[in-house]
Amino acid sequence: MIAQTRARAGVLAEAWRELGDDVAPLSNEAGLPLARTTRLIVDPLVVRPVRYPHLGRALLDDDAARELRDRVLAARADLVATAAWFVLMKRARRARRITTGHPQDLYFQRAYELAHRHGHPGPDAADVAGKEVDDVHDADRVTGADLRAYLTLPAVAQEVRREIEAAWAEADAHGHPDAARVAALLDACATGGQAELAALVAAGDGSAAGAALRAPGHARDEGLTAHDVVAPPEVGTTASKSALPPPFDRSVLERLFGAVAGLEITGTAGLRRVVDEEARRSARPWQLADEASRAVMTAGSVAARLDGATDAARRLAGRWRREAFVRQALRLPDGSVPADGARTAFVRRLWVRLQGRELRGRDLPAADVWDLLDGVLRSVVLDRRDRVKAALAQDGAR
Fold first, then answer.
1. Distance CA 224, CA 163 (A)
2. How many CB atoms lie under 10 A from the CB of residue 294?
3. Got the DSSP string for 324-382?
4. Which run of H or E residues covers position 5?
5. pLDDT band at 299 (very low <50, low <70, confident <90, very high)
6. For the chain, first and last CA: distance in Å?
7. Average pLDDT in the 125-143 region?
């Protein structure tokens, strides 16, 4: 008998809806958990896939699906109380006219801690929430604005430039990646891949592939730069999350701006450490620090071709073809190709996620590789769907 599997996201959505309106402050308009709710509360504090890795996979068997649902529903009281505490913390924030940082990033986990310590808010809850907000904002936690102010200090900018120049001067040449080892990981990662990832890491195939991007045109073909030759990053004076250049063209400020508030670093010493690490990371192959990250980046760039040459590529291509807007575009007489640009978007998002994992100090075990690749493609699909549908509608109106 063939084992049945269910998408983890669907199981989580169904369980969340069962919690009802009391968790609305943690939900989106569709009644599903916000992305930050999943990332900051549900996964690390309720489901805990690090301890229970079988609950963190993109596809769950029947037993795992039931266990995930049970864990979410069993946490109902904590989640309802968390939602109520979060509302009170936002109210205290407004009363103090605080505008720095994103409330969900800053307060979600604090609200969950309050729910554990105090249960549902009681008569003194407003005072408790206010003290918690004061504690958050008195902790000298670094924000994006702090990072910008730090990097625009002339002495700091000059020192960071020296760090970048020194790191790039030390960059080593590497050999050539073994395509067979890369393919072996892509054939195995959806169901395992521990030995295959270890072989790639030991052989340095990710570093070899990443070093090859220094050759003219190579990184541009991957969509990681708009230039023929990759250059060391600028320090940067401005950053906008909505208008970022390709990854290798981003300044140090742009590389760190969106993530620094969530790193919970404090003071100038913490800022200097993160900036120095990013300066050194920019000179490494794939502009990533860890060999496991480089190995996955190498494998992901191959899988993103959606050519069906490996098991991972076939699975990703299948997800792409199942999208209704893709099937519709393929039937158009004008030769529309809905996958145009998808590979570039995939490679860029994979780099961002791997760099983000390194910033947060998270290891990259083989069990996470397939979920990472599948999640990146899922985000590309969601991002492109509306744009492609709009283009199809224009074609149909002509």
1. 22
2. 28
3. HHHHHHHT-TT---TTTTHHHHHHHHHHHHHHHHHHTT----GGGHHHHHHHHHHHHHH
4. strand 5-7
5. very high
6. 51
7. 84
Sign of CA dihedral 309, 311, 313, 317: positive
CB atoms within 10 A of CB 62: 11
Mean pLDDT for the stretch of residues 279-304: 96
Report helix, strand or coil for 169.
helix
Q: What is the pLDDT of residue 1?
A: 41
More confident residue, 156 or 140: 156
DSSP state of 251: -
Asked if 193 and 280 touch (Cβ cutoff 8 Å), the reply is: no
41 residue type, one letter: I
- In whole angstroms, what is the distance from residue 29 CA to residue 257 CA? 28
Question: Angle at CA 293, nearest 5°, toward 288 and 296?
Answer: 130
CA angle 380, 100, 79 (to 5 degrees): 65
